Amino acid sequence: MPPSSTVEAPLRASATAARPSESAAENSISYTLPDLVCFAHLHWDFVWQRPQHLLSRFAQHGRVFYVEDAFYHNDDLIEPHVEIKERQNGVKVVVVHLPQRLRADEAAADQAQFEVLSHYFSEQGVTNYLFWYYTPMALGKSRQFQPKLTVYDCMDELANFKFAHPELKSREQELFSKADLVFTGGHSLYEAKREQHPDAHSFPSSIDKAHFGQARGPLAEPADQAGIPHPRIGFFGVVDERLDIELLRELSQQHPEWQFVIVGPVVKIDPATLPRTPNVHYLGGKDYQELPAYLKGWDVATLLFADNESTKFISPTKTPEYLAAGNPVVSTPIRDVVRPYGDLKLVHIADNATDFAKAIQKALAQRDDTDWRQRTDAYLATISWDQTWQQMVHLMQERLHAKTPDAATSATGTAPLMATKVSEVSLPPAT
Hints:
By secondary structure, the protein is α/β, with parallel strands linked by helices.
């Protein structure tokens, strides 16, 4: 079997993320769910975000299989096979390896993945299970299975992202018809999806307060940030089409006295288009457990998001993370940041370079504002990933019991739901 490094993203922010600071295992919640099989478009080892927060909690109570997109080899010699990587709390990351010739034949690739996954799950004794989707495109390799429950955790409007698959919207409609529950990553997304599914629920980005709260205590300065002068204006996250490159360019040119620290991998955009003024510092992707140390060294944290289709429904997890670290925050008018953070006067909102700079000036003096800090902490006390996870579990258990009273507690079914024999995959001829 090929080494795991062959399937991991070339640009990633986290290789080995820390376990959650909030432990779901410590909660008294009664957990009665089948095995959880998640289909995702994001590499588990890319950045630590919503899927990792939630699924690492599920894994503390039952088996979790995280199925990534297939990895295509550069030759046709490889036979379809599965690779398993164990991650936080026993999450099993599942990657199907395919020969290059299948890349151009989506139907054959999906069938090959179904066959390999079916065989693997049969070997693992997975007969009582639920499906959890992050991408509707995974239906191609999974629609032949028979899960006890189907959940669509819609964390982004993927159809609006750069290089989105042309069938994504139609696949999403198919997923809506199959899903028992739809969760959304923010309120704006909920307002859109509730019109398309009768059992949709809003679960905005939450926070691991203990982890990011470390930034308020003593932490060593990271070596690559230590030499950067103050004041430091920071941003962490994936640097892609959602970043307002022109806003960053204007701010850095108009305020050479400020140092802009950008932490995160650059994907889907040409790095040459990024501002290269001396006061902009691109530090690359960092491990999740390193982030508090970077945040501690910032004077102001920012959400430099552009106003475009890809940001229309986003609910940035970094908003409460910045605040938990004790950093004043300035953001462009992303709807799920304005509501509630802007409305509560916890985050400064500005939609152009001039106003954004004025907001940064105010934020630079805000760290010693006792009233702002108390109000911020009071709000953060009302949210956590543990609370989000528990509410999701409650809804899932309710739907399972409503469908079949013993669905959530039955260890085995009368007949396996996964195929027990893998038919031979018919591959297109090599050319």
